Amino acid sequence: MRAALDTNIMAYAEGVGDRERCSRARQLVAELPVEHVVLPAQATGELYRVLTSRAGFTGSKAREAILGWSDSFEVANSTWSAFQSAFDLATDHQIQIWDALILSVAVENHCRLLLSEDLQQGFVWRGANVVNPLAESADPLLTRFLDV
Known about the structure:
Strand order of the largest sheet: 3-2-1-4-6-5
CATH class: Alpha Beta
CATH superfamily: 5'-nuclease
Number of strands: 6
Shape: globular
CATH topology: Rossmann fold
Largest sheet: 6 strands, mixed
Distance between the termini: 8 Å
Structural class: alpha/beta
Mean pLDDT: 96
Number of domains: 1
């Protein structure tokens, strides 16, 4: 089983947000089976924006943080096919285009999970399940993934 990370999980792990979410995101990242996790390139670009605009990181510090993520996890590029699917998702399900692209890239990379606090918990598209890993009760699929 594979999982993709959305921007918000990485941002919390970088310390952007309230103490509880940041702590839970760091704990989650520490438990992830590295070889089964994908970072959509779109999410890393969004992370750069969040770190430089909200967290006060310099461009250099944000770049180093993102390179650290890419040293640990596979980065998946956005393909034209992923964009086409994202347009369909955005149109048919009223999902923001950039969130749709992240989900589409997750699907292209055979992910069963997209770990996100922003997208609708429980939304399933082409076999990928949106799971909020910071929710009070643990999702059974996420629990299974972490037990790999």
